[in-house]
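Molecular record:
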Amino acid sequence: MAGAIIIYESKYGNTRLVAEKIAEGMRQVSGVEVEVRELKEINPGGLSEFDAIVIGSPNHMGNATRSIRKFIDGLAKFSFEGKLAAVFDTCIGKDFEKAVKKMEKQVGEKAPSLSLAAPGLSVRVEGMKGPIIEGELPRCQEFGIAIGNRLKV
């Protein structure tokens, strides 16, 4: 059984909803177990038990939140040889995909032993408090399926 964890930070619930939809997609792949946890619940030392680590953040002016960036920096202390990673963000307006690309780069620099399971996912949200734009949630499930399939390889 392959195990994955989805770690997120969410102020208004949009990023949490995306995390849950990604988990739904991953669970559609047989043999994949997924946990969804808020960043504040995570002990980074326990992450090595998972085969994949998925990290999500709201997009704050083209970046992940400070807490998510600090968390990714902390991954440098651990070895993740043979493990997978993926990132996602929720975004309003013109900064679409900026935070997710920065998160991918940061993961590659801080935890180079992690392999990207799929290109990062940026999900459009209508306003600070949401809702998520219609048609975006199915993309989240597809993203989860793609990660789940990579775990099966």
In short: The mean pLDDT is 95. The chain has one domain: 2-152. Residues 28 and 145 are 7 Å apart (CA to CA).
